[in-house]
Amino acid sequence: MKRPTYTLPSIVKKVFRSGERSLPRTEICSRMEANELTALMDLDSATLLDKVLKMEQSPVRVASSEAIVEITYQPHQVYDLAYRFLRDTQHPKKLEQIVAELRRQTQFGWNQILRMLQLERDPRFVQYQGDDRWFLAEWTLANDQVYDFCRNNGITQVAARSLVHFLEQEVGIAADAAFLPMLDDRFRVEGDTLYIIVRSDVTDEELAVEEMAAADSSVSIANIESETEEVVPEQQEPIFTKGETNMTNATNVRVLEEVQQLLQQAISRLEGRNQEMAQEVVTHFQQSNMQAIEVLMKEKHKHEQIVLGIQQVLATSEQQ
Q: Is pLDDT above 70 for 212?
């Protein structure tokens, strides 16, 4: 059984409540077990705590008494800035993203921030095994909520194009909740669609999935419109002499063919970009970056209108 699981240091940090600086060993172990933080681990709580205490960047250390464990975090403005950055964006971030933001907000250099910002020590930050991003310890995990909703409502697949609406409006997950399908064997991401693996007591039932048409184009609307304007001549009524007619007709045919080819190329570029976008959506999906997916979906709608316009121009040109 695979579920999102905190890293060992994060498990220990999760047992400390706001304002607590130290706890008895027995209390730490008791809280780990009571909150089922070690349920998916092969280690008992005492062994897990001992392993974390021996880590180089451990969030805890033995106090003056062997029976007491205290956190090693020392307050500093860079930690508070990092905390506010994640809290305000409501998205997990990689260390380099956090450092880049702190460089923007402070006068510290990159290496200075890296030396000062030891997020392993701050109990406000946690990580999941298999994910190098940092989450806030106060955030909830929505995997169970999403799975229960899908199972109870007979939902076996969700397309990325409707994912934001589905999670927020239908499932009703909190804005700062983390959804990590790639770390959970109840879900599977294939192509651009999320499978929900509905289990019975006997077998695993996996239903077929429709391919998601979530794609976008890197060609901007302005560029497409500009290109179309350049190649589509204005409709005028030229006056030709009899001797010029044959030559002019041939020129018109050639120009029209070139216009049609350019328009077909524009559509081909859109379709090619669609293939690339499929992987981009999956990447954002795996990172639970719903905001990025929503932006891509809005952009996709705009480009669909452009493609429709190009197809109408082509249809008109073929009738003439």
A: no
Residue 166 CA, distance from chain mean position? 15
Least confident of 106-110, 119-123, 159-163, 252-256: 252-256
Instruction: Count CB-CB contacts under 10 A for residue 22.
Output: 16
Contacts of 146 by beta carbon, 8 Å cutoff, 6+ apart: 167, 171, 173, 179, 187
The pair of three-digit structure tokens given for residue 244, joined into one six-digit string:
């010029």
What distance in Å separates the CA atoms of residue 114 and residue 96, rounded to the nearest whole number?
9
Q: According to DSSP H, which parts of 153-220 are helical?
A: 163-165
Q: CB-based burial of residue 102 (10 Å sphere; 0-12 exposed, 13-18 middle, 19+ buried)?
A: buried
Spatial distance between the Cα atoms of 66 and 220, rounded to a whole number of angstroms:
64
Element (H, E) at 1: none
| CB neighbours of residue 80 within 10 Å | 12
What is the phi-psi region of residue 208: left when phi exceeds 0, alpha when psi lies from -120 to 50, beta otherwise? beta
Sheet holding 187-190, edge to edge: 157-159, 193-196, 187-190
Assign 279 a pLDDT band (cuts: 50, 70, 90): low
Predicted TM-score of the model (pTM): 0.63
- Using one digit for the tens of pLDDT, what is the confidence trace for 233-250? 333 333 333 333 344 444
Tell me the one-letter amino acid at 156: T
CA 119 – CA 285 distance, rounded (Å) = 25
User: Residue 191's closest CA among 310, 298, 102, 274?
Assistant: 274
Average pLDDT value for residue range 46-70: 96
Report the C-alpha gap between 70 and 57 in whole angstroms. 14
Q: What is the pLDDT of residues 12-46, one digit of tens each?
A: 999 999 899 999 999 999 999 999 998 888 899 99
